[in-house]
Structure formats: structure tokens, C-alpha cells
Design a protein that fits this description.
Shape: globular
Strand content: under 5%
Radius of gyration: 17 Å
Largest sheet: none
Number of strands: 0
Number of helices: 5
Distance between the termini: 20 Å
Structural class: mainly alpha
């Protein structure tokens, strides 16, 4: 049986990169639109404790994403011919298929069942695809 090789440095770099991407995505890029679509009062700011707790939970979630994604990508390396694929193909296959199969259905469900807007859908699902591309790029190039 083949052994999966995971580069833990790449996992940590992906965690940090996605934490930064999340900050940029949900603060200067789409923060106001996201808050409006979520129905948040722009005058109410979270406390320091709420921010710290949210950041810690986000880092833990980013670690789970990067670690599981690294394992998934490593498992695909055993498929014949995968080593012949250009790195950009590996990145896009991993990111797009993971997004299509796991994130997009949940994001559409939020619009369908929770009655959230398509604008919010675009903001959130765009972030999900971007974070997968970032993680896949780091995990591929640092492998």
C-alpha cells in the first residue's frame, strides 16, 4: 500500500494564506456588501473577545481544510498519468472539483432554504473557490 506524503509546512502556509485571504475578502473587498446581505447593523462592532474567538475558530477551520485537502490531493497522485499533468491542471482540478462537489451545493442550499440573496451567494461561493485555488496552489508548488 502506498503512503501519502503531506508537507506540513505547505499546510501551515495554506492556513496563513487563507486566513489573510478571508480577511481581505470579507473586510476591504466585500465586507460592506456581505454585512448588508447578512443583515448586520454596520454600527455594531464585535467585541475584542468575539473577534479573537472568531479568528481562532477560523484558523482551526483553515487547518482542517488545508490538511484534508492535502491528503485528498496526495491520494490523487496515485492515479496513473497524474504526474504528467501540468501543475496548473492539478491545481484547477483539485480546486474546481472540490468546489463543485462540496461547496457549491451547500452555497446554493443557503439561497434555496435559508432565503439568502444571490449576491451573498456570489460573495461566499467566490471566496470558497478562491480559497481552494490558493490552498491547491500552495500545496502543489510546495509538494
Amino acid at each position: 500500500m502506498e503512503e501519502l506524503t503531506i508537507n506540513f509546512t505547505a499546510v501551515i502556509v495554506a492556513v496563513v494564506a487563507n486566513f489573510i485571504l478571508g480577511f481581505l475578502w470579507y473586510t476591504p473587498l466585500f465586507g460592506k456588501a456581505w454585512a448588508k446581505e447578512m443583515g448586520f447593523d454596520p454600527n455594531v462592532k464585535p467585541t475584542g473577545g468575539e473577534m479573537a474567538r472568531g479568528m481562532i475558530i477560523m484558523v482551526i477551520g483553515n487547518f482542517f481544510l488545508a490538511y484534508v485537502f492535502a491528503n485528498n490531493m496526495a491520494a490523487w497522485s496515485f492515479v496513473p498519468g497524474m504526474d504528467q499533468m501540468p501543475k496548473i491542471g492539478t491545481i484547477m482540478n483539485a480546486a474546481i472539483f472540490t468546489w463543485l462537489g462540496f461547496y457549491l451545493p451547500v452555497d446554493i442550499g443557503v439561497v434555496t432554504w435559508e432565503k439568502k440573496s444571490w449576491k451573498l451567494f456570489g460573495i461566499n461561493t467566490g471566496y470558497h473557490l478562491a480559497m481552494l485555488i490558493v490552498a491547491a496552489s500552495i500545496l502543489t508548488y510546495m509538494a
